[in-house]
Design brief:
By secondary structure, this protein is an alpha/beta fold. It contains 17 helices and 13 strands. The protein has one domain: Glycosidases (TIM Barrel, Alpha-Beta Barrel). It binds 5-hydroxymethyl-3,4-dihydroxypiperidine. The site of 5-hydroxymethyl-3,4-dihydroxypiperidine has 8 residues, from loops.
Length: 466
């Protein structure tokens, strides 16, 4: 049982400098996939392959944010958020991934950034949130070392175009997830399950991160730079020694394949030998270029079991008594507190929580309201855990809810709703949920609505109050 505790304390009060925000990503919300010159990404193609995505869903229309961005920025303004983290669609601005830029695509982000600034919301740009241009994938994509140069050129285009108005840049969102799922397990685009492909991809993403930092430092005065990592405790799923070893091994891939080289200029032991053949002199110094903050995406701790896959480890079941969200993820705010403190101790850097949130089975009631009390309980428990970490010394300066809108949840399609705002996909009507009102009142420091405790299954909590 997760206890809902009292109000956040003074350090998160309005005007404390703490950044409250929301996060999204290009492929998950923009739609307009074949409009104004956008090229295909690996996810466009993956969605077209039968059986890859639930219900055959695609990103063709998504939340139609490309056309409705003004309405979406107005929703953010109503929430009272300080900052909005979004990603640039690489194939929208460079349809072939390199070479000729697409002015119409670039102009879309001009309009979005200007609308945000006019609304008093700081834009935070993430350069890569998984939608690799297909044309680059056909040249080897993340397996081709040349991608570090392609990524640097793309970064230069973005820095030159938006650096006059944007100061906050993240290089990558969750590199451990898109490399492991896309090249190691074959569960996400481009659907490859191969150890060599995985290790090449890991190293080339790290190289691209370092190259992008250099470009951004040179092009954007006062830039504030980071990368966004999904870093969680990894526990053995069972009591046997194999699961214990698998959990340790998995953690080196999940938690350390990117932060370790980026902060300490070396790979963790499980990866070092496998990656050696792809390394060249000077790589590690480039990869370990200085950053200004650590972006943490946190949802759940992992329960890991041994498996005969490319890394010998996969996800097992959480303990049966742990409550779960509708997507099946365990709700354990203590793991969030522990992650924040662990990152603080290891990396000694300011932390921004760049994603946290929950899927829930939301539907409008007969009066058209979406009373997502399970999400409120989750967010309250997790922001309280963050508060505990801050009180214990972690230098956390911001928190972004995933996500503003219900959106395309990768291979789950539109089945899993993560938004503070409900999206009726057939009509594209937006309905701010009860959690949106709760988040707005958290930000302004007003008294928050009381919420039920999270029960064994948060979906039950939601249904029970309808
Ligand atoms: O939707 C994703 C996002 O793209 C990356 N972080 C986790 C979210 C929820 O699964």
């Amino acid at each position: 049982m997760v206890k809902i505790q009292g109000a956040p304390q003074m350090s998160l009060a309005p005007n404390s400098g703490f950044v409250w925000g929301v996060s999204t990503s290009s492929f998950q919300i923009e739609g307009a996939a074949r409009i104004d010159g956008r090229g295909d990404s690996i996810w466009d193609v993956y969605c077209r392959e039968p059986g890859r995505v639930r219900n055959g869903d695609t990103g063709e229309t998504a939340c139609d944010h490309y056309h409705r961005y003004k309405e979406d920025v107005a929703l953010m303004r109503d929430l009272g958020i300080d900052a909005y983290r979004f990603s640039i669609s690489w194939p929208r601005v460079l349809p072939k991934g390199r070479g000729a830029a697409n002015e119409a695509g670039l102009a879309f982000y001009d309009r979005l950034i200007d609308e945000l600034l006019a609304s008093g919301i700081e834009p935070w740009i993430c350069l890569y949130h998984w939608d690799l241009p297909l044309a680059l994938h056909e040249l080897g994509g993340w397996q081709n070392r040349d991608i570090a140069g392609w990524f640097a050129d793309y970064t230069a285009l973005i820095a030159r175009r938006y650096g006059d108005r944007v100061r906050r840049f993240a290089t990558f969102n969750e590199p451990c997830v898109f490399t492991l799922f896309g090249y190691g397990f074959g569960w996400n685009a481009p659907g490859i399950a191969d150890a060599d492909a995985l290790h090449r991809a890991i190293h080339h993403v790290n190289l691209s991160h370092g190259a992008a930092l250099e470009v951004l430092r040179a092009a954007v005065p006062h830039a504030s730079l980071g990368a966004i990592h999904n870093r969680q405790p990894c526990f053995p799923a069972g009591p046997n020694v194999d699961d214990a070893a698998a959990a340790r091994h998995f953690a080196e891939y999940w938690n350390d394949a990117f932060p370790h080289p980026q902060f300490f200029a070396s790979y963790p032991p499980a990866l070092a030998k496998a990656i050696e053949p792809f390394q060249k002199p000077g790589d590690m110094a480039l990869i370990a270029g200085p950053v200004d903050w650590f972006g943490l995406n946190h949802y759940l701790p992992h329960y890991i079991k041994a498996d005969p896959n490319v890394i010998g480890a996969t996800f097992g079941a959480p303990p049966p008594d742990v409550p779960r969200t509708t997507i099946g993820w365990p709700i354990e705010p203590k793991a969030f507190r522990d992650s924040l403190l662990d990152i603080h101790r290891r990396f000694g850097l300011t932390i921004y929580v760049t994603e946290n949130g929950t899927a829930s089975d939301d539907t409008p009631d007969s009066s058209g309201h979406v009373e997502d009390v399970g999400r409120i309980a989750y967010l309250q428990a997790y922001t309280n855990a963050m508060q505990d970490a801050i009180a214990a010394g972690a230098d956390v300066r911001g928190y972004f809810v995933w996500s503003l809108l219900d959106n395309f949840e990768w291979t789950s399609g539109y089945d899993q709703r993560f938004g503070l705002v409900y999206v009726d996909f057939p009509t594209q009507r937006r309905i701010p949920k009860a959690s949106a009102r709760w988040y707005a009142s958290l930000i302004t420091g007003k008294r928050r609505p009381s919420v039920p405790q999270i029960s064994k299954n948060s979906a039950e909590a939601i249904t029970a109050t309808r």
